User: What shape does this take?
Amino acid sequence: MSEQKNLLSLRNIHKAFGGVIAIQDFSLDLKAGEIVALVGDNGAGKSTLIKIISGVYTPTSGDIELDGEAISFRDASTARAKGIEVVYQDLALADQQPVFMNMFLGRELTKPPFGLLDKQRMREESQQLVDELDVRIPSAASTISELSGGQRQGIAIARATHWASKLVLLDEPTAALGVAETARVEDQIAKLKEKNLAILIISHSLDQVFKLSDRICVLRRGKQIGVRETKNTDKNEIVSMITGVA
Amino acid sequence: MVVYIGFIAIFLFFAVTLYDDGFLTQRNLTNILLQTAPATIMAIGLVFALSAGEIDLSFGSIVAVSALTVAVVLQDYPLIVGVAAGLGVGVAIGALNGVLVAYLKLPSFLVTLATMGLFAGIARSMTDLRSVPVMNETFTGIFGSGKLFSLPSLVIWTAIGVGVGHLVYRQTRFGAHVLATGDNPRAALVTGIKVARIRLYVLMISGFTAGMAGLLYAGRLQAAKYTLGESDLMTVIAAVIVGGTALNGGKGSIIGALLGSLLMGMLNNGLILMNLRVSDQMIVRGLIILLAVAVSLRDSKR
Ligand SMILES: Nc1ncnc2c1ncn2[C@@H]1O[C@H](COP(=O)(O)OP(=O)(O)O)[C@@H](O)[C@H]1O
Ligand SMILES: [Mg+2]
Assistant: This one.
């Protein structure tokens, strides 16, 4: 595992909003097929870090390499074009549109000769994707607003996996879900690993973090407290790293 | 959808109660189609604007400005120049609305409320409140009284407008982006949709359809006046809402807007045939629109 090339390298990332330092000297490497969990209290800078990687924010200083190539994303579209997808905290779904239109939002398939929407193909491909991840919905033509929280989360994850060729970033993917739905979404996330994608997940649930991740990275008030191999640490250590209380 | 039921209900109601007054005669039904043509065309543009989460209140004023522009330009220039000027003015006013909304981030309700007043004033001053005759017979044929294969040109324009509008709305990436923008602008943005550009375009489309409605009025009446389009604001908004388009974006129907517009046309026609005083017509129409809109909105929440 350790000889494998890094998919994503973050080196000495800083980010300040005016006087507020949100991220300070952050460095992390991610490999394909690896799940890294990002943990820390509210305001620690986790969402900011995800937005930096996905091109929503530009870091004040520091370097980002993707596949060994230095990159600077001007906006979220350039990051997406490089194979980085995000599952946002608010899911970013258009509620009154059908599942298949959400799955292909901004990247709709068209058919010759007039370039009209190929709804049938989008429906079929969406159905296949949700089936693969075992997201159980009535149909790919269902409207998002008819679905439960867990089903929506499943759609957002399925969309990200479909378009991500390298990296999926998840911001608290189960925060709003019940127990059964959480378990289902966790299974879906575990499946992304099999597709050899690198995954960075923000979570407040340490149970989840220990269940899913290979490594755990702790942030406290913008500072990187440390990175641990999940199998070589325990909840007590992580909690004390998060809170700063030994 | 409620509009289908309402459409059939009102049609049957008038067919029975106004049978002796000639509601069902071919001439009267054709008349309804001809009279609603401009409103239907305006409604198409409004469906795009509302679906993207914007509103256009200025289309009535655009109708007057573009009709007057065509009438004035046709006095000295050939058909094509007049048509281009009339439509161009509509698109330009729509673009003005659009730039203020999309790039200066002003709310479309306030922007178009202001431009509604602004261009109503400009329409009044363009010809000093005078009506301008349209003598160009090719123009009045194409946009008014003419026929093709025994179909009135206004009916043909309505069909083209609805057909093209429906296709663009339902079957193109642009239509999908309009709906996504109105549904959840943040989701649209993070999936790479150029949300600001969509907002600009829908207001330009609304300007274009209002311009087209101006041409149809000028063609049918063979004259243009500042009052054209003035009374269409309520009718067209009601037609669109009754037709199943959401006021706050993300959902709509061009076919529904057509039916809504025909429904409003039947209502107007029926109230006139009932020999109600104009003031009573306005009251009854207002009440029925209120009812229709309330029922449609309840229906769409389910
Ligand atoms: N756009 C912004 N402008 C100003 N300050 C911000 C902005 N985004 C985040 N911050 C600040 O950066 C810090 C980290 O925020 P965030 O990354 O959202 O934390 P977390 O996701 O870990 O809860 C907080 O102090 C927050 O107030
Ligand atoms: Mg956060």
Observations:
- Residues A 46-47 surround magnesium ion (ligand 2) (CB under 6 Å).
- Chain A is about 35% helix and 25% strand.
- Chain A has a mean pLDDT of 90.
